[in-house]
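Holo prediction — zinc ion.
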Amino acid sequence: MLPKTVMTDDFVTHLPKGGYLVIPSHILDTLSKYRQRNSSQPESGGTFIGCFRQGSDDGPISIEIVSYTEPSKMDSASRYGFVRKSKHHIQKVLNAWKRSGRGLTYLGEWHTHPESKPNPSIVDIANWKKNLKGKTAILMIFGMESDWIAIWDGSEITELPPLIPDQPI
Ligand SMILES: [Zn+2]
């Protein structure tokens, strides 16, 4: 059974092990401009930066996305592929980590797909398994019409409900 989705201004969903995920609407609005709605738009991608929140010592851990990186000209982008090559992605994550006293950290990544209802490719899954071993990450793919979003818990992917802007509460 899928977790219950609450849609207010921000995207909020329950995580499989308890706690919740919040992605503020302004982040989704900004990243939505990279959707590959016309045939000339290449894939785009970047990282998520955020924090873990725990209400009590033994309470569930929630995730709040507070920032992100966007593609730059130094990245490698084509219609069917995006590779983060620019150093600004990792630099922004490190800066946020230092400036926040280690409160903000790398919390996943996003990229686009030229399909209306996106799904991760075999290459995506292989890359995540290789690069995110032991980490917690929010994984998001912006399709032309809808999105795919999941949590990686260090070893496996659990899909979260799709982001549908007019989904009723
Ligand atoms: Zn992909």
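READOUT: The chain has one domain: 11-160.
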